[in-house]
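F.,

This is the one I mentioned.
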């Protein structure tokens, strides 16, 4: 059996090998994006992605370290090796894919609109909000920002550092609508949105969510895709449906 030096180097330098050698999986994520990663009352980070990361570490036989990171700079942090992988509800975009590799999607979401209730009846679709005089808000550096810049040519667009700050603008009547990933909007609506917002829940975009890793690492990518596939196929006893039901179905 021959193992060529180049192959051996590839494996030695693979993130997968380093994780196993160090006995640690470092996961970059930005809490605040429910139900994927958010802080509970004790300040602990919980959610769909966190449970998935725990399962991943368990299968790798290593300990898990969560590395909370601001969204702005989360890709830079991966590239500079602050963590091994981003598990943070990240949408696969062609722009991001120039900088990182993505494993296969684990879920698909789309952008929806949380509109100020004062517009109920007057506005029935996301399209009708595209008029000067209306203000649309979202979080900086997200796929939602890309989407609204594409969809809204006449309305005013304002972005905020966090999703919570952005949606608050609508609650406080400083903006007319908040555009963001549908699972977040559903939960926000059920919690703080009642009597104050209207959910225009027709998805405006198609957004696969996937784990991001550094480029040039086929060993790690191979492990992740096979792990994901197994989890999805094992859904009766394993986390795919279990996690979905726990975090995404009320
Ligand atoms: N899916 C959106 C995007 O990729 C938002 C993700 C935000 N994730 C987070 N953990 N804050 O741009």
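My design for it:
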């Amino acid at each position: 059996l021959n193992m060529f030096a180049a192959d051996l180097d590839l494996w030695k330098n693979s993130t997968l090998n380093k994780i196993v050698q160090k006995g640690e999986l470092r996961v970059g994520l930005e809490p605040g994006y429910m139900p994927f990663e958010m802080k509970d009352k004790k300040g602990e980070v919980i959610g769909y992605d966190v449970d998935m990361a725990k399962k991943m570490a368990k299968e790798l036989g290593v300990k898990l370290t969560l590395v909370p990171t601001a969204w702005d700079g989360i890709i830079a942090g991966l590239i500079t090796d602050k963590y091994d992988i981003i598990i943070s509800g990240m949408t696969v975009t062609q722009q991001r894919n120039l900088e990182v590799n993505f494993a296969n999607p684990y879920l698909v979401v789309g952008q929806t609109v949380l509109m100020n209730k004062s517009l109920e009846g007057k506005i029935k679709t996301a399209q009708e909000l595209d008029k000067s005089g209306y203000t649309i808000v979202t979080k900086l550096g997200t796929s939602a920002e890309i989407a609204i810049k594409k969809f809204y040519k006449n309305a005013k667009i304002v972005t905020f550092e966090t999703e919570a700050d952005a949606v608050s603008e609508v609650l406080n009547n400083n903006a007319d609508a908040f555009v963001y990933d549908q699972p977040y909007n559903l939960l926000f609506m059920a919690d703080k949105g009642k009597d104050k917002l209207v959910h225009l829940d027709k998805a405006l975009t198609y957004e696969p969510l996937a784990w991001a890793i550094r480029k040039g690492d086929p060993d790690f990518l191979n492990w992740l895709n096979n792990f994901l596939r197994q989890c999805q196929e094992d859904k009766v006893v394993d986390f795919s449906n279990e996690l979905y039901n726990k975090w995404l179905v009320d």
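The chain has a mean pLDDT of 94.

Talk soon.
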